[in-house]
Amino acid sequence: MSHNAEVTGGKDGSSVAAVRPTGAKYSNAINTLKSLVAGGIAGSVAKTVVAPLERVKILFQVHNMPVSILGSLRMIVEKEGYLALFNGNMAVCVRVFPYSAIQYVSYDYFKHRFY
């Protein structure tokens, strides 16, 4: 057994039930994984929050609608329902999650590396 391991006792009183790696490398890997997930979730939540405005923007680009933004949102909800404001959001989240995750981890890495 290496010196970078934690030994835990089992339920039945055995001396070694599991060996979990510990130390700086293990801790860095866990922190990096946590940062990847946090960055991906943050990017997905941000895109989901602005999804209704993105939908209105696309409708303005495709159709020449002389209506205000709030009028467009109201019209979408009346004609298609509330969930129509989020059409296409899942595809955007699938694209944004890895991008945001890598961007966040890269920023954190280079911040600690150079400052």
Provide an overview of this structure:
- The protein has helices at 24-49, 51-62, 69-80, 89-114, and strands at residues 5-8, 18-21.
- It is mostly helical.
- Strands 1-2 form a two-stranded antiparallel sheet.
- The radius of gyration is 24 Å and the shape is elongated.
Task: Tag the structure with descriptive keywords.
4 helices, single chain, 2 strands, 115 residues, two-stranded antiparallel sheet, mainly alpha
Number of helices: 4
Tell me the β content.
5-15%
Biggest sheet record: 2 strands, antiparallel
List the uncertain runs: none
Mean pLDDT across residues: 83
What is the CA-CA span between the terminal residues? 37 Å
- Fraction of residues in helix: 55-70%
- Strand and helix order: EEHHHH
Which strand order spans the largest sheet, edge to edge or round the barrel?
Answer: 1-2
Structural class: mainly alpha
Walk me through the topology.
Blueprint lengths: L4 E4 L9 E4 L2 H26 L1 H12 L6 H12 L8 H26 L1
Antiparallel strand pairs: 1-2
Helix pairs in contact: 1-4
What is the gist of this entry?
By secondary structure, the protein is mainly α. It contains four helices and two strands.
